[in-house]
Amino acid sequence: MAGTDEAADDDALFVLTAQLLTPAQFPSVLGDDYPAACEALGLRPYGGGYGLVLGQDGDGARWTVVIDDVSLVAVAIASWDCGMEYDLSPSDRSVVAALPGWPLAVATVAPGVPAPHDPDEGEAGGPPLTPPDTSAWGPAQRRLGADEVALQWAVWREQVAEQITFAQPDAPEEERATPHEGVRRVLRELHAYVDDAPPLGRVRSSFAPDGARMLRADGPGWSLVARTDDIAFVLLDEEPGEVLPVGRGPELPGLLEALDKMAVRPS
Question: Which of 19, 221, 38 is nearest to 104 (CA)?
Fold first, then answer.
């Protein structure tokens, strides 16, 4: 493998980006849980997870190299996020598979090589990976929307502050804020997750400020984003583009606490 500043070499992979594929951190656009995301790439849902290295070969062809050195990819991503250079060059021993195509959209290209294109069919050994279609609302777009809500939590929280109204003063806040039947269905399914653990990665917990945790849960036709010390947001396949708030209420805190205890977390 090679960095993008090295001379073109037909056998080199010019790394453009990388992603983690682990039970706690995986590209949610690929599926509602870790096994589903692995299945989208034809991989076994190995508990230790994988690193996905996306790049181009010397001819410009798109390749996704799957490695088992998760720590290496995690360090590279952290360095890039901090604006630091990092030469991601996994050893051949760590390579699990070299898959044609890219499962995710990549905006950058490697300099000094032809434009990105799929490998020749004979060289690829199978159909190339392609990013999920997000041009229309559906599961992939819904999950991407939930990603954005988690990333911009403070912005979304401020926008809905006035939506949690008190039209029915005697009703619990959770009930007042969630009259939507689809939201009630999601809450029922989340309670079922607590009683009967769903597939690995359906519920994930990550860091949030002030000692809280950011929860992310997905299921058939829905996604939820919540902070353990605050409210939640729900996105539904049947409600294109809508982000529905779930008020704190008397029951939500206990549900979020129970979900956090069963959730997978980044190591």
Answer: 19
Exposure letters 138-162 (e unless 16+ CB within 10 A, then b):
ebbbbbbbbbebbeebeebeeebee
pLDDT in tens, 221-233: 999 999 999 999 9
Q: In the 3-class helix/strand/coil scheme, how is 28-40 assigned residue by residue?
A: HHHCCCHHHHHHH
C-alpha to C-alpha distance for 79 and 194, rounded to whole angstroms: 36
Torsion sign (Cα): 31, 135, 237, 203? positive
Q: What are 125's two structure tokens?
A: 């050994």
Q: Give the three-state DSSP class for 205.
A: strand
Cα separations (Å) of 155 from 145, 160, 168? 14, 9, 26
Reference 201, options 29, 20, 32, 30; nearest CA is: 32
pLDDT value of residue 9: 52
Domain residue spans in the chain? Answer: 14-124, 139-262
Q: What is the mean pLDDT of residues 190-199?
A: 96
